Amino acid sequence: MGDAGTGTGTGARTTAAPVGVGLIGAGRIGASHARLLAGRVPGARLVGVADPRPGAAQAVAGPLGARAVTDPAELLADPAVEAVVVTASTEAHADLVCAAAAAGRGVFCEKPAGMDLADVERGTAATAAAGVPFQVGFNRRFDRSFAAARAQVEAGAIGTPHLLRSVTRDPGLANPAAVPPWAVFRLTLIHDFDTLLWLNPGRDVVSVHAVADALVAPEFKDAGLLDTAVVTLRFEGGAIATAEASFSAAYGYDVRGEVFGSAGMLTIGTTAAGSLVRHDAAGAHAATVRSDVELFADAYTAEFAEFTAAVREHRAPAVTGRDAHRALAVALACVESVRTGLPAVPAATP
Questions:
Q1: Which domain holds residue 62?
Q2: Range list of β-strands (E), the chain
Q3: Residue 15's pLDDT band (cuts 50, 70, 90)
């Protein structure tokens, strides 16, 4: 099995027949994924979209020439569907992963793969028992810059990692009332936790200390919304990392990483949408990236290329249920840390 970030990527070609893919969940990210599967992933053929909301599936599937259904079971029963991409609400992820496995379909699930560790373990066990690939959507591993950084860490280019940093700042809260409790850890920083684990290979996180508050929308704090957080992580071997999140980056979508080692440093990420900078009397001006869909279009494409290749080749994908378990264990330890005000130890991953 190749390492994450080594999928076929954008523009890859395959001689095998495309994998028939069904997508469950026609929300914002589901609609984006559907367009990529239909138009940018040579190894995929979008067969259908399922969503129980009236008209939601048709709005996504229709323009792409795919079938639209309201019942995911109907999509799973379609013999043309060989693999399933789960982009439904987080609460439904584990059940849908298990249902797809029971139908003998390869499964790609957006993060997190479940609401708790038992959910992730259930999905991992179901896909293993069915003998189908199970990939989780940690897309940063497939971004060219993040993948290059991982390769350099593995090659020893910066020596032994001592300090690591990961930043995620979202452009804003469109509807704070719709954000579930602890989302800053379970839905947002879970990407950063996976990235930090991946950039410090072979080392588990042994403790976390998290601080979080509602600074963007304080009126929603009593409802459980925390929108700003900083986490300190300690790894086996002594390396220290920080992960930072905010839901209020007025300047755009900001995802960056850093690995400082005994022999050098790697920095990853930029908010710039391109290299064009306008200079005038008021200063320097550049367009910035405004969404994950814009920043990670190539990474999303590459992770689906990896998934469809794993389905076609009957092998494990580069990102597995075990990776999902490790990242969620860190996220849940952060919840415990905020509640107690003390460091917490992530649960061990089988």
A1: 19-140+298-319
A2: 19-24, 44-50, 67-69, 83-86, 106-110, 134-137, 161-169, 205-213, 228-235, 240-246, 254-261, 264-268, 278-280, 283-285
A3: low
143-198 pLDDT, tens per residue? 999 999 999 999 999 999 999 999 999 998 889 999 999 999 999 999 999 999 99
- For residues 187 and 270, state if they share a domain: yes
For residues 185 and 268, state if they share a domain.
yes
Q: Are residues 106 and 148 in the same domain?
A: no
| pTM of model > 0.85 | yes
Buried b vs exposed e over 290-312: b needs ≥16 C-beta within 10 Å?
bebbebbbbbbbbbbbbbbbbbb
Residues 159 and 262 in one domain: yes
First to last CA, the chain: 20
Decide if 243 contacts 255 (C-beta within 8 A): no
Residue 347 lies inside a defined structural domain of this protein: no
